[in-house]
Amino acid sequence: MKSLTLDRASFWYAATQSPALRAVSLDVAQGEVVALVGALGAGASTLLLVAADLAPRVIGGRLEGSMTRRDRSGIVLPTPWTQISGMAFTVWDEVAFGPANLGWPTHEIARQVNRALERLELLPLASRDPATLSGGELQRVIIAAILAMDPGLVLFDEPAAELDAAGAAMLWQLIRVLAREGKAVLLATSAVDALPDVADRVVWLEDGAVRAVGTPDLLADGAACDAGLGTSIATVWRAGGLPAPYPLTVAHAVRGRP
Amino acid sequence: MIAALRLEEVSFSYGSVPALERVSFSVAPGERVALLGRNGAGKSTVVRLIAGLQRPDEGTVWVGDWDTRDCVPEQLAWRVGSVFQHADQQLFARTVRDDVSFGPRALGVGEREVERRTDRALEDLDLTAHAGHHPYDLPPALRKLTALAGALASEPALLVLDEPTIGLDRTLRARVTRALLDRSAGSVALLVITHDLTFAAETLERGVVLDRGSLACDESLAALLGDVTRLEPLGLAPPPVAALSAALDLPGRPVRAADAAAALARVARGKPVP
Fold this sequence. Notes:
The complex is a heterodimer.
Chain A: E1 2-12, E2 21-29, E3 33-38, H1 44-51, E4 62-69, E5 73-76, H2 91-101, H3 106-119, H4 135-147, E6 153-157, H5 165-180, E7 184-188, E8 201-206, E9 209-214, H6 222-226, H7 232-239, H8 250-255
Parallel strand pairs in A: 3-7, 3-8, 5-6, 6-7
Antiparallel strand pairs in A: 1-2, 1-4, 8-9
Helix pairs in contact in A: 2-3, 2-4, 3-4
Chain B: E1 5-14, E2 17-27, E3 32-36, H1 43-50, E4 58-63, E5 66-67, H2 73-76, E6 80-83, H3 96-106, H4 111-124, H5 140-153, E7 158-162, H6 170-185, E8 189-193, H7 197-203, E9 206-211, E10 214-220, H8 221-226, H9 240-247, H10 257-269
Parallel strand pairs in B: 3-8, 3-9, 6-7, 7-8
Antiparallel strand pairs in B: 1-2, 1-4, 4-5, 9-10
Helix pairs in contact in B: 3-4, 3-5, 4-5
């Protein structure tokens, strides 16, 4: 079942002439992970803001076409320090801020908060002041705070940007678990090397429009490599002058070694 | 030659939470050093100590021949250009140009020199077309580059950059690599904190690894990344190119994309790799 549907959605930021999104049509189903890739200004972050119903409802601008959601959404922004409530003096209270504002009973808030902290491996930090955390720790807190509200549609903008290797691996696995639980996940990321193991579908955005949609194999396509969107392995293979099809991952490369 | 940066037995705690314990390393002029480690390993604390925003509890941080304990941040800005992890917090002017020129202007250099440095920094990072934009009208990636351009424009002897490639795509990362290699060739010392080991492999030459506040490793970055079995215990994951080199046992175990591509091409043609 579709969780999110964009139908020929175009969006203009306030006081701009050209649209940041151009007639984008896209579905995200429950249980599906869809990744948005593209160069700077391609429209991935804008698409997430539209899907979160923040654009134009909160930030202004103009939307043509339609955006329809079946589920409540939660969005993890690319700048986690701007998403912190500033109202909490412990990590536990920070993660509880969202569920409390949904008006849930206390026992349900506690259950969701503890589950989210456990999933993000944050229980040892539960009593810490969020202001004392490292960037990666804070990013995990924000992700936990969004998941604690149990959104059916989870939107991530560069969710692994501040995470170390273990944190990033944990997050990518968690995203697959969220999909298995039936959540719809839409994420924008420049970490294309992670996508073969994470995404069901990849949407390549260019200048606000959809250029291509496909499986993660799209990231081994010659055109994607030339646009800087191929995986590192595909890009190296192509740069070495080896013939297509290019391997997507190290495992694929080993199977097709020269 | 005096090191651009030298940490001598530096320890620091946030209240009762220890962050660094007897950390020592140095960076020579023109050297390009990656400061690596897990989240919470103490890397960003090192940045704050170098910028003079914190004072070590024990030990000494030397910037050239200045003991940072004797300096306020404004003085240190003569020698250190910093980009903090949350670079948005460094941006305050109404245009990108005004923001980038703030550093050299605050240093008191002449207006013509301010313009020269600003133009050069904007060109180095391909930001000239955005010079008249408000920084907050730009996407986060370009705001990060704006903060970096501000650090470049001060033309310091030492650049300390905390996660300069967050949110940047491959094209923008290459732009940053190009600018940093250019500054390094002019004897600017680089200390770069990053989880982006692909960027580190392309840009930097030495790896200093912190683990739970202590120095765990200080050696050639190519050697470290080329030995993938050592990375996981340090909280690091091999970048894909290094993993590919190891998996295919490419001669020389290249960790940079161009070197790996050349090695692959030679292997495919059945030629020995020099």
